[in-house]
Amino acid sequence: MFSFIKKKLGWGSAADEGQAPADQAQPAAAQAPALAPAAAPVAKPEAAPVAAPSLAPPAPATAGPAPAAAPEASPGTAAGAPERRSWLDKLRAGLRKTGSSIAQVFTGTQIDDALYEELEEALLMADAGVAATEFLLTDLKRRVKEAKSTDPVQVKGLLVEAITELLQPLEKGLEVGTHTPTVIMVAGVNGAGKTTTIGKLTRHLADAGQRVLLAAADTFRAAAREQLLVWADRNRVDIVSQEGGDPAAVTFDAVQAGRARGCDVVIADTAGRLATQLHLMEELRKVKRVIGKAMDTAPHEVLLVVDGNTGQNALSQVKAFDEALGLTGLVVTKLDGTAKGGVLAAIALWSRQRHSPVPVYFIGVGEKLEDLQTFQAREFAQALLS
């Protein structure tokens, strides 16, 4: 369940499957009333930014569409706590292949060079990468020395702290509402789960009373337009599409339509691209430029969906798409059953060296609607070593 900071609106907690059935669909062109939150209906905030994750650590209220809080998260989400715990169990299960190899390092009785060597190997096998592995080992040794730890179990706890601190800058909420409409451009290689992620995010926004318009600008992949049409039908939101149309033209029309219809959010599904396909990456740049012509300051978010199973290749994608588009956020999918969960450490270290961090807004651990949840550094670090 997601919630807003400004009005604490509850996001729907339906256990919908990731694949949208074609039955019971409403015409995509007709705008149905916004879905009511799972809890008691609350009036939609006016001219107030809709914040993203309310899962941000207790202090600041700077997060946006967010899943139900973890046990120590913000108030008003107690009803969703069991759902959050269920999701955390899925996250732990998904990262078990990664975490088991790391956790085994701490089953011994001594803290010596052999332990650190085994830990280095485990982190590399988890696709943390050479730079992030060296960073974590150096930080861990410092923490062990300062804490004067003599128990490997204590060292494991210190590693959780080190990973949490490294990942912390990635923990930020997606915010919509500062601009009307808020224009979100979504990119990613084919197979990363881009269109399905858009469908899930759209459902959460619609359940929270946000009027969403989709742009089917993925005219490159067969059936991509049809897939997004099904999501639009299921979520009862409008969609702008053209069979075989130019992606830039589709997005331009969608942004213009979103402004004319008073939509809160416009989400553009762009074609899957490989970073090595330079002519196709140039088309993405064109789409972004055209969005800017349709509305000043847009796009307000440029999100990249990456498959967590691809390991270090995910980091390569992040770098390439950031260079081409200037990313504002990430969605990491398919963290169910992967042995490569350490790649988030590599992304976090790269993000530190950038002029500003690229946050991970959401992570996905399955096909169901509730399997897309906001990212929390400590939750992830604990799941990684559980």
From TrEMBL:
<feature type="binding site">
    <location>
        <begin position="333"/>
        <end position="336"/>
    </location>
    <ligand>
        <name>GTP</name>
    </ligand>
</feature>
<keyword id="KW-0547">Nucleotide-binding</keyword>
<feature type="region of interest" description="Disordered">
    <location>
        <begin position="14"/>
        <end position="83"/>
    </location>
</feature>
<keyword id="KW-0378">Hydrolase</keyword>
<keyword id="KW-1003">Cell membrane</keyword>
<dbReference type="GO" id="GO:0005737">
    <property type="term" value="C:cytoplasm"/>
</dbReference>
<dbReference type="InterPro" id="IPR003593">
    <property type="entry name" value="AAA+_ATPase"/>
</dbReference>
<dbReference type="GO" id="GO:0005525">
    <property type="term" value="F:GTP binding"/>
</dbReference>
<dbReference type="Pfam" id="PF02881">
    <property type="entry name" value="SRP54_N"/>
</dbReference>
<comment type="function">
    <text>Involved in targeting and insertion of nascent membrane proteins into the cytoplasmic membrane. Acts as a receptor for the complex formed by the signal recognition particle (SRP) and the ribosome-nascent chain (RNC). Interaction with SRP-RNC leads to the transfer of the RNC complex to the Sec translocase for insertion into the membrane, the hydrolysis of GTP by both Ffh and FtsY, and the dissociation of the SRP-FtsY complex into the individual components.</text>
</comment>
<comment type="similarity">
    <text>Belongs to the GTP-binding SRP family. FtsY subfamily.</text>
</comment>
<feature type="binding site">
    <location>
        <begin position="188"/>
        <end position="195"/>
    </location>
    <ligand>
        <name>GTP</name>
    </ligand>
</feature>
<keyword id="KW-0675">Receptor</keyword>
<feature type="compositionally biased region" description="Low complexity">
    <location>
        <begin position="61"/>
        <end position="81"/>
    </location>
</feature>
<dbReference type="GO" id="GO:0003924">
    <property type="term" value="F:GTPase activity"/>
</dbReference>
<dbReference type="InterPro" id="IPR000897">
    <property type="entry name" value="SRP54_GTPase_dom"/>
</dbReference>
<keyword id="KW-0472">Membrane</keyword>
<protein>
    <recommendedName>
        <fullName>Signal recognition particle receptor FtsY</fullName>
        <ecNumber>3.6.5.4</ecNumber>
    </recommendedName>
</protein>
<dbReference type="InterPro" id="IPR042101">
    <property type="entry name" value="SRP54_N_sf"/>
</dbReference>
<dbReference type="InterPro" id="IPR027417">
    <property type="entry name" value="P-loop_NTPase"/>
</dbReference>
<keyword id="KW-0342">GTP-binding</keyword>
<keyword id="KW-0963">Cytoplasm</keyword>
<dbReference type="InterPro" id="IPR036225">
    <property type="entry name" value="SRP/SRP_N"/>
</dbReference>
<dbReference type="InterPro" id="IPR004390">
    <property type="entry name" value="SR_rcpt_FtsY"/>
</dbReference>
<feature type="compositionally biased region" description="Low complexity">
    <location>
        <begin position="14"/>
        <end position="54"/>
    </location>
</feature>
<dbReference type="InterPro" id="IPR013822">
    <property type="entry name" value="Signal_recog_particl_SRP54_hlx"/>
</dbReference>
<feature type="binding site">
    <location>
        <begin position="269"/>
        <end position="273"/>
    </location>
    <ligand>
        <name>GTP</name>
    </ligand>
</feature>
<dbReference type="Pfam" id="PF00448">
    <property type="entry name" value="SRP54"/>
</dbReference>
<comment type="subunit">
    <text>Part of the signal recognition particle protein translocation system, which is composed of SRP and FtsY. SRP is a ribonucleoprotein composed of Ffh and a 4.5S RNA molecule.</text>
</comment>
<dbReference type="GO" id="GO:0006614">
    <property type="term" value="P:SRP-dependent cotranslational protein targeting to membrane"/>
</dbReference>
<dbReference type="GO" id="GO:0005886">
    <property type="term" value="C:plasma membrane"/>
</dbReference>
<dbReference type="GO" id="GO:0005047">
    <property type="term" value="F:signal recognition particle binding"/>
</dbReference>
<feature type="domain" description="SRP54-type proteins GTP-binding">
    <location>
        <begin position="359"/>
        <end position="372"/>
    </location>
</feature>
